[in-house]
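Let us practice reading a record.
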Amino acid sequence: MSLDMGRNRLYREFETLRLRWDQAQLTWQDVVRQEFTEQSWMPLELAVLTTLGAMDRLAPILTQVRHDCAGREFI
């Protein structure tokens, strides 16, 4: 799987999860949901967004490396 494919899959799956989370919050309105939001959802969301950003920054670097190394043989 390429970096772009992995990034796109992570994005799509997280968007699906986010939609389902938004729906769940409409009916789940207690202290446990608040704890879940703070302890699980928010750290997960931050980790995914950070990862997507890192993948976006890494993609052009990998493209340049592939271009620079094209046609070369390495031992």
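A brief commentary: Helices lie at 3-27, 31-69.
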